[in-house]
Every structure is written in structure tokens, then in C-alpha cells.
Design brief:
The termini are far apart. Helix 3 links the parallel strand 3 and strand 4. Helix 7 runs parallel beside helix 8. The chain is 32% helix and 20% strand. It is of the alpha/beta class.
């Protein structure tokens, strides 16, 4: 398991828990607005964080940390992720997995192994605009399977969408709402230019009024939808 970066403490990434966040390299999507471009495109050029040093850190922080978030890139691309998570679980910490939902079989295997406590899946856009939004030529069918599985597997979860003015409309949000109707939690988060964006096109964030209109389009279908990080 290649760890490319470690955020040693976060109060935001894992709901209701003090956690650290592990970043893996590589991704099978090419979302043009991705804010971790170096992890997606140049992960082999980024030195790996020593795995044993990571485990020494979380063992030292017992009693302070509640959990570990595993994000990327796309963590499920790592064939040894089950072993890695099993080691984390042996320390007594909870595990949150961030995924783009493209690998439902890998996701299912982790859930059925009993090692995942929380799943956060990105919903990139409406089905019609999904391929465009994640930089692919066709809709990734695994996403559909993952949505259905996550909503029925019994593990706590959330869906989330990063909203970009050039890519997301009220109509798109209504379509997403119909798609994931009845979801437990859905978060909308506004695009932020991190300075490490995958595509050099000009992307921008919606205004507060526009965000509220996008939210209103989803609420009839997913009542527990919130705008995350709103000022």
C-alpha cells in the first residue's frame, strides 16, 4: 500500500471523529476540476510515506485519534488495501473510505470483510453528464452498482458532489436527486481552486444564491442534503 501523503489530524474528514487522513496515488478518473492533480497524474514521482512510520504514528496517538480516512486518488486501485485496513482495525481505530464508486466488487469485498465503518462516495454529476465530468468517454457502469450497494449494505455512508459552475446545473441536480432518492446523507461542496487542478481550463464556483438553487433541486428527493463548508 503506497501512502503518498498523511494529514496527521483532521476534525472534518470523518464525521464525529478525530482522525488522520491517508492519501493514496493514482486514479482511473480524470475529472478536469480535480484538486489533487499531482496525486492522479504524477503519483509515481511523489515519494511514498513510510508505511511502518504511519503505523507507529497511529499507535502513538491512541486515545487521541478515533479513526483513519483513506482517500486519494482512488484507494481501491491498491490490491493490498484489505491487508492495510485490517492492520488499522487491529489498532482499534475506525476506517472511513473515500471512493469514486467505479470498483463495486472491491468495495463489496471490504464491506463484507467487516473492515469499513463509513463510506463517502463522490457523485460526479447526472448520468447524462457523468463521463464528461469525470474525463471518460463512456459512463462508468460500476458507479451505478456502487450507489445501489452502498445504500443497502448497512454501513454508514454519505454521497457528495463537488459543484462547478461550468459543469453543474439545476437540471443536473434534479437528475441526481432522482437517482439517489432516499439516500441517508448527501453533501454539496463548492469547487475551490487548490492550485493543483488537473485541467488548466477556467473553472469557478457558484454564488451562494446559485448554490441554494442547486440545493433546492435535490431536497425533494434527498431531504437530508446539505451544503458543506458554506461560509
Amino acid at each position: 500500500m503506497e501512502i503518498k501523503a498523511l494529514q496527521k489530524t483532521t476534525l472534518l474528514d470523518f464525521p464525529s471523529k478525530v482522525a488522520c487522513t491517508v492519501f493514496t496515488g493514482g486514479c482511473n478518473f480524470r475529472c478536469p476540476f480535480c484538486h489533487n492533480a499531482s496525486l492522479v497524474l504524477s503519483s509515481k514521482e511523489i515519494p511514498s510515506y513510510d508505511t511502518e512510520e504511519f503505523f507507529a504514528y497511529i499507535n502513538k496517538r491512541k486515545g487521541i485519534l478515533d479513526g483513519v480516512c483513506i482517500t486519494g486518488g482512488e484507494p481501491l486501485l491498491n490490491s493490498d488495501i484489505l491487508h492495510f485496513i485490517e492492520r488499522i482495525k487491529k489498532t482499534g481505530l475506525a476506517v472511513k473510505l473515500d471512493t469514486n464508486g467505479s470498483m463495486p466488487d472491491a468495495l463489496r469485498s471490504l464491506v463484507e470483510a467487516g473492515v469499513i465503518d463509513y463510506i463517502a462516495m463522490d457523485i460526479k454529476n447526472s448520468r447524462e453528464k457523468y463521463a464528461q465530468t469525470c474525463g471518460l468517454s463512456i459512463f462508468p457502469k460500476g458507479v451505478e452498482q456502487s450507489v445501489q450497494y452502498i445504500m443497502s449494505c448497512g454501513v454508514d455512508y454519505e454521497f457528495r458532489t463537488t459543484l462547478v459552475r461550468e459543469l453543474h446545473t439545476v437540471s443536473d441536480m434534479e437528475d441526481i436527486g432522482k437517482w439517489i432518492a432516499g439516500a441517508k446523507k448527501y453533501f454539496l461542496q463548492s469547487f475551490i481552486d487548490s492550485g493543483d487542478i488537473l485541467d488548466n481550463k477556467s473553472f469557478s464556483a457558484h454564488s451562494k444564491e446559485e448554490l441554494n438553487a442547486l440545493l433546492a433541486a435535490v431536497l425533494p428527493f434527498v431531504p437530508n442534503t446539505q451544503i458543506r463548508g458554506e461560509a
